[in-house]
Design a protein that fits this description.
Elements: H1 2-17, E1 19-22, E2 26-32, E3 35-41, E4 44-47, E5 53-59, E6 63-72, E7 78-89, H2 94-101, H3 105-121, H4 134-149, E8 154-165, H5 168-218, H6 221-237, E9 243-246, E10 251-254
Antiparallel strand pairs: 1-4, 2-3, 2-5, 6-7, 7-8, 9-10
């Protein structure tokens, strides 16, 4: 009876030590006598002999590798940048990754990035890394890294240049250029505004001139005489005393 308990305990201990749980987002591969199995498991439990076999687990989720690196530019300047490399392992090639690089494959990714980024950034000016061309630089580095790593089972999803620190002299010159462009745009706006105001005044002056021309063309001698008669009539109807000096065609009124 004691022997049965002994074997039961031994079996339980071996079961606990000989069972590995693969979590979601992980992949597990058995390594027996130093040789990796061709069958990988992505989730669930794996039973194995703990004396001769070991289960190697690694993530197949997208991971973020952060680097701070000095990048060379076309004019020979050094631009410090904070880089994020988003990558993941091809689950069908995890065995190859572990055989070639082990579990420290991030060191390989970092080394290849440094080489690829140096080749790509050397084709651009430092100001390009701080402008709209940044996305083109990121894409070029990603493609160059992918041409090496994809066939090795490491997929580069994106390369992000999160911060760029330009040399102080270049940063100041860029700020001055941007300030000059803003000043030029403001002056152009003021100029356009002044031109519109001048056009409005010209249109108003033309309108007044045209109105005066129309009035002067309509004041014929007959109309002037008729207006004078109407003025005399209105004066004669007024009860107030007035002194009127006239040449017969236009009255001049003097209030006593």
């Amino acid at each position: 009876m004691r022997v049965n308990y002994f074997f039961l305990i031994c079996f339980s201990v071996m079961f606990l030590y000989g069972c590995a749980v693969i979590k979601p987002g992980e992949i597990g591969i058995k390594r027996k006598f130093g040789k990796l199995s061709n069958n990988a498991k992505t989730s669930g439990a794996i039973l194995y002999n703990p004396f001769i076999t070991k289960v190697i687990k690694t993530s197949i989720q997208t991971r973020n590798l952060e680097l701070s690196i000095s990048l060379p530019s076309k004019e020979g300047l050094s631009v410090v940048s904070q880089i994020s490399i988003l990558y993941r392992l091809d689950k069908s090639m995890v065995q190859k990754v572990i055989n070639n690089y082990g579990l420290n494959y991030e060191n390989i990714i970092s080394s290849i990035f440094r080489s690829a980024s140096a080749d790509v950034c050397a084709q651009f000016f430092a100001k390009d890394m701080h402008s709209g061309m940044r996305s083109q630089i990121e894409q070029s580095i990603k493609e160059k890294m992918g041409s090496i790593l994809t066939s090795q089972g490491i997929i580069i999803e994106s390369v992000l240049m999160k911060s760029i620190q330009l040399p102080p002299g270049l940063a100041n010159s860029i700020e001055q250029r941007l300030q000059a462009e803003q000043d030029a745009m403001r002056m152009e706006f003021l100029k356009q505004q002044a031109e519109r105001q001048a056009e409005i005044k010209i249109i108003e002056a033309k309108g007044e001139r045209d109105a005066q021309l129309i009035q002067s063309e309509g004041l014929t001698p007959e109309i002037i005489k008729l207006k004078s008669i109407e003025a005399f009539k209105n004066l004669s109807d007024s009860p107030n005393a007035k002194i009127i000096i006239t040449n017969g065609s236009a009255p001049f009124l003097i209030n006593p």
